[in-house]
Amino acid sequence: MNSVELFRSLSAFIEPMLLHQGDRLFNAGEAADGIYLIQRGRVQLTYKNAAGSPVTERLVHGGQILGLGPLFAERPWGASAEVISTTRAGFVRKDAVLRFLDEHPEGRLAVLKLLSQDVDRCLELIRHRSPAMSKAS
After folding, report:
1. What torsion, rounded to 10 degrees, do the Cα atoms 58, 118, 76, 4 define?
2. What is residue 114's three-state secondary structure?
3. Residues 64/38, Cβ–Cβ less than 8 Å
4. CA-based, 20 to 30 A from 16: which of 55, 62, 66, 83?
5. Cα 22 versus chain centre, distance
């Protein structure tokens, strides 16, 4: 199962949402009790840096899954998600995600690949934003 097939399969469990510019999916620090499937539109993830200034982490587009990391790490959202264009999304509760993965073990590899891509993306951010750290490695 690839990420597109995972997205389609999890879509069977969504609680549909239609969001407009300025709406929030979640705020940093809130419990991550499920994932979001962004079907259409764009969502901006932002966090506050050490100085307290907002920093854009990334943009999430239609066809992407948002929240696998916090869900499986059992940690709160590390960023806030604001809708920047009309967005159709779906929320899938944690119990539905876990039940799906129990019943469809082939989906676990797709989840691992997506989580690995998130780790790679984070490493790239560190390398490009912290030149001193990349020299020390």
Report:
1. 90
2. helix
3. yes
4. 55
5. 18
Q: Would 47 be classed as within a structural domain?
A: yes
Distances (CA, A) of 80 to 5, 28, 56, 66, 122: 27, 5, 10, 12, 17
CA distance 119 to 121: 5
98 falls within a domain:
no
The CATH number of whichever domain residue 75 belongs to comes to: 2.60.120.10
Alpha carbon distance 61, 43 (integer Å): 7
**Does residue 25 fall inside a structural domain?**
yes
Per-residue pLDDT tens over the stretch 79-131: 999 999 999 999 999 999 999 999 999 899 888 898 888 888 877 877 877 55
Shortest CA distance to 67 belongs to which of 56, 58, 59, 76?
Answer: 76
